[in-house]
């Protein structure tokens, strides 16, 4: 069936609507960053840069590093932006944009997120790195799709019970990272665990300014949750959306976070830019190892 113009929106030049990209502009190995300014911090390490574009918060550089073609794309903040980025990237590779039909032979992308986050556990110090073994979605965005094949109900049920999860909220979904990329980034100095993905920065992450929280004890119960020795390590706004959509679309994904704050101890990195730069160089070296 032909996909309608209202569903797959293209720019006049044939590029996908939000990302402003054509298929030839993107590599099959893609680094996601949230901040558009971080794109340059990654691509400055490239040996060559063949393509650059930006539309809104979505900035893309494609080039080579040690002979490997890589794209780096800024996603902006939040699960809603990830929904745009991953669906449009998949369309570039797996939909015939001229005939508006899915291709028979599908391409699986390798997606590595380089993000920043705050740790929830005291044993994860600032300036360390976390690889998300799984992403726990609390935003509800993934419930727009059929998720039966990607959720892990035993974990989710235990989390709901322990945290006394309000049933008026979206049911949490746990999605695990790519096994292939997990093995590629399996270094002993990395902290691993579950990353909780929230749909906002303030109330959804338990921050209080002028508005009262629906459940002001929720963060404490999240921090203390332990399922078979696996704790929630950190809190941010993208990982579970990346994992969920990647699983559903057949892509490999892993999320790496530079810990620039520890909410359990109240510490904040004295030089977050240096920590992020270390994570960028580590990631590029692992991709090309």
TrEMBL record:
Q: Tell me its EC number(s), please.
A: 2.4.2.3
Residues in Nucleoside phosphorylase domain copies:
30-266
The record's annotation in CDD domains points to: UP_TbUP-like (cd00436)
Q: Which GO terms describe its biological process?
A: purine nucleoside catabolic process
InterPro entries named in the record: Nucleoside_phosphorylase_d, Nucleoside_phosphorylase_sf
Domain of life of the source: Bacteria
Q: Where are the transmembrane segments?
A: none
Q: Name one GO cellular component term.
A: cytosol
Its Gene Ontology molecular function terms?
A: purine-nucleoside phosphorylase activity; uridine phosphorylase activity
Reactions performed catalytically: uridine + phosphate = alpha-D-ribose 1-phosphate + uracil
* Name the UniProt record assigns to this protein: Uridine phosphorylase
Organism listed in the record: Aestuariibaculum sediminum
């Amino acid at each position: 069936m032909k996909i309608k113009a209202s569903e797959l929106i293209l720019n006049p030049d044939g590029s996908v609507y939000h990302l402003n990209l054509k298929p030839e502009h993107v590599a099959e190995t893609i680094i996601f960053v949230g901040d558009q300014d971080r794109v340059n911090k990654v691509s400055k390490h490239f040996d060559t840069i063949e393509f650059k574009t930006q539309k809104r918060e979505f900035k893309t550089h494609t080039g080579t590093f040690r002979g490997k073609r890589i794209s780096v794309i800024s996603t902006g903040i939040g699960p809603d932006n990830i929904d745009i980025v991953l669906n449009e990237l998949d369309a570039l590779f797996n939909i015939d944009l001229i005939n508006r039909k899915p291709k028979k032979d599908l391409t699986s992308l390798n997606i590595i997120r380089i993000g920043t986050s705050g740790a929830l556990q005291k044993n994860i110090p600032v300036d360390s790195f976390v690889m998300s073994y799984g992403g726990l979605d609390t935003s509800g965005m993934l419930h727009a799709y059929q998720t039966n094949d990607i959720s892990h109900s035993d974990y989710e049920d235990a989390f709901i019970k322990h945290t006394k999860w309000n049933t008026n909220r979206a049911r949490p979904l746990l999605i695990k990272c790519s096994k292939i990329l997990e093995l590629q980034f399996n270094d002993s100095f990395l902290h691993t665990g579950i990353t909780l993905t929230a749909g906002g920065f303030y109330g959804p992450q338990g921050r209080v300014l002028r508005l009262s929280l629906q459940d002001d004890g929720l963060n404490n119960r999240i921090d203390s949750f332990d399922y078979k020795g696996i704790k929630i390590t950190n809190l941010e706004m993208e990982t579970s959306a990346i994992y969920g959509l990647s699983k559903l679309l057949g892509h490999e994904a892993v999320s790496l976070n530079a810990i620039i704050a520890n909410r359990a101890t109240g510490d904040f990195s004295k030089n977050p830019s240096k920590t992020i730069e270390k994570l960028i160089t580590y990631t590029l070296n692992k991709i090309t190892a």
